[in-house]
């Protein structure tokens, strides 16, 4: 590694957070969501650790993500959350022994045409009110009738997704819960009763019902899905510590302008550090002057505009030298949640922004 930037991933924090899922959803099977490169944390690193922690399955968004997990030698079930995107993908999905999520008639037709005699394994997704993916509940009777023509198929159960679990007091949650419960109540006996409804926010804030499978994503990485709350407030441990180093230091007498657009001017004597991190690494360009960072264990702020590969930090009142560590976000630095709040976005977006050129490193 030549450039001194790294995303450190704590194995012990991943183990701890799986334990929190178990405590909040006792008796449930855990479908660990590792799509989008484990929310930017590195699926190739996180998935094996989650496997060590005993999760029951992994969930991904594409065949490519599933292939990556299989290449790691992971044998646990893998769920393709959006199902196949083309008829040809059915064959590869079956070869990889994936669990499909079937959410529309076209996918069902692909299965009938290409996997009629195969032991296809899937969930049926029902639209309980989010109106993103899923069959209308009124269509389930016809679907059940069609399933009887394919005795080799295993349909684990129904799946749905809540739209507002991050605002748990919202009555829309109960409306969706009731709609899903009605669908479960009327489920055909061809289904194995392994239903799935809740994600991280619902696991943490909506005690009932969890059904057989829970689908934690963000909370596995120690991040909070709730505005104004950090993962630590929920008993979680931050998995990410995004770090770099000081690569240059400048002493200004006052009046000097800094960086692109000369967006910041030293009003008096100031000491400024340059950090090997920028928007090319996924650090948000909108994090201008005043964004918290940690330098050599001391809190300070960024100055001026973020460049593609570098950013500036204020060292005026700090003891800091070339090569000293800088924590951009996560453990031992500003929380991802606090930075998301500052930038008026969500933690999901910030962690998913971390680019592939930033190495992921497993730490205890």
From TrEMBL:
Top-level taxonomic group: Bacteria
> Where are the N6-(pyridoxal phosphate)lysine residues found in this chain?
35
What is this enzyme's EC?
A: 5.1.1.1
Which intervals hold domain Alanine racemase C-terminal? Answer: 239-363
Q: Which Gene3D superfamilies match?
A: Alanine racemase, Lyase, Ornithine Decarboxylase, Chain A, domain 1
**One Pfam family for this entry, by name?**
Ala_racemase_N
Top EC class per UniProt? Answer: isomerase
Entry cofactors: pyridoxal 5'-phosphate
Which reaction does this chain catalyze? L-alanine = D-alanine
Question: What is its biological role?
Answer: Catalyzes the interconversion of L-alanine and D-alanine. May also act on other amino acids.
Sequence similarity = Belongs to the alanine racemase family.
List the HAMAP family. Answer: Ala_racemase (MF_01201)
Protein name per Swiss-Prot or TrEMBL: Alanine racemase
**Which species?**
Acidithiobacillus sulfuriphilus
């Amino acid at each position: 590694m030549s450039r001194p930037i790294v995303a450190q991933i704590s194995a012990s924090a991943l183990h701890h957070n799986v334990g929190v899922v178990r405590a909040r959803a006792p008796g449930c099977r855990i479908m660990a969501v590792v799509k989008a490169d484990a929310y930017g944390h590195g699926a190739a690193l996180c998935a094996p650790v989650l496997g060590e922690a005993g999760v029951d399955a992994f969930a991904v968004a594409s065949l490519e993500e599933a292939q990556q997990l299989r290449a790691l030698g992971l044998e646990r079930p893998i769920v393709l959350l959006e199902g196949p995107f083309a008829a040809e993908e059915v064959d590869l999905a079956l070869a990889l022994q994936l669990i499909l999520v079937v959410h529309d008639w076209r996918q069902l037709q692909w299965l009938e045409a290409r996997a009629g005699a195969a032991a296809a394994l899937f969930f049926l997704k029902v639209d309980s009110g989010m109106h993103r993916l899923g069959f209308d509940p009124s269509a389930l009777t016809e679907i059940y009738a069609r399933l009887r023509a394919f005795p080799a198929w295993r349909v684990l159960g129904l799946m749905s997704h809540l739209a507002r679990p991050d605002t748990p007091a919202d009555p829309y949650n109960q409306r969706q819960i009731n709609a899903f419960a009605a669908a479960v109540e009327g489920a055909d006996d061809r289904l194995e009763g392994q239903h799935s409804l809740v994600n991280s926010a619902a696991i943490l804030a909506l005690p009932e019902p969890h059904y057989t499978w829970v689908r934690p994503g963000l909370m596995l990485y120690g991040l909070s899905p709730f505005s104004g709350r950090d993962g630590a407030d929920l008993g979680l441990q931050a998995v990410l510590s995004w770090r770099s180093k000081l690569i240059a230091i400048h002493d200004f007498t006052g009046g000097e302008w800094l960086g692109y657009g000369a967006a910041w001017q030293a009003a008096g004597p100031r000491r400024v550090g340059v950090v090997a991190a920028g928007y090319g690494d996924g650090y948000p360009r909108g994090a201008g002057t005043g964004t918290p960072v940690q330098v050599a264990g001391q809190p300070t702020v960024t100055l001026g505009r973020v460049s593609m590969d570098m950013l500036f930090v204020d060292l005026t009142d700090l003891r800091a030298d070339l090569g000293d560590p800088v924590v951009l976000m996560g453990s031992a630095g500003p929380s991802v949640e606090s930075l998301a709040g500052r930038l008026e976005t969500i933690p999901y977006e910030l962690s998913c922004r971390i680019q592939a050129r930033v190495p992921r490193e497993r730490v205890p």
